[in-house]
Amino acid sequence: MTILHKANTRGHANHGWLDTNHTFSFAHYYDPTRVHFGALRVLNDDFVDGGMGFGTHPHDNMEIISIPLEGDLEHRDSMGNVTVIRQNDVQIMSAGTGIQHSEYNKNKDKKVNFLQIWVFPKLRDIKPRYDQKNFDPKNRENKLQLIVSPEKQSEGVWINQDAKFYLGSLKKGFHAEYGLSRNGNGVYAFVINGDVTIDGQSLNKRDGLGSWGVDKLSITADSDAELLLMDVPMDI
What we know:
Blueprint: E1 2-5, E2 11-14, E3 18-22, E4 40-48, E5 53-59, E6 63-70, E7 72-77, E8 82-86, E9 89-94, E10 99-105, E11 112-119, E12 129-134, E13 144-149, E14 157-158, E15 164-170, E16 175-179, E17 185-193, E18 196-198, E19 201-203, E20 208-212, E21 216-221, E22 225-233
Parallel strand pairs: 13-14
Antiparallel strand pairs: 1-20, 2-3, 3-4, 4-11, 5-10, 6-9, 6-11, 7-8, 7-10, 9-12, 13-15, 15-22, 16-21, 17-20, 17-22, 18-19, 18-21
């Protein structure tokens, strides 16, 4: 089974300092058919003006992943972390029993674009936790690079859920099959840039395709492309 979300069907809001697109219902955008994909609750494509950002606000019982695509994002939280996340970094917070944090564009002279992703946790009310890693882009050239993993000792940042995320930088004509990580999971594919075909469905920049009830996906790059795969439980 599949569900297709074309880029131009996403919820959109422009707050002046923030231009954002919501794949799933978020804030003032609500579509009862697009509340979540299994454990994947939020997929926001945020553009933040120079020096602007999200003031301190709370979260609890959610896994929150940030993937910068362009620019630098400054993060501060109630655990004492003060960091900057940049392109090729991946940040994750297990909000658990509760945290507060803020996110600002580190630069005054250019926008920052990042993907803000929320995943329902496997265990609730855990101790809040922060992690951030840098990933060599060479390790995803014509392959899928693991960036988020439920295995604490893996190369990916650890997530409190049976989920795996991958990034791929695929050259035109590249073809591969992806096997799902566990029974009961589905995969949500998000095309960051370029054009790909997944199981016969053509996808373009910022399109999303969710697939479940399958064992594997067939992926072909129709142009040079950047692809994010999110392998998540469907039975939440």
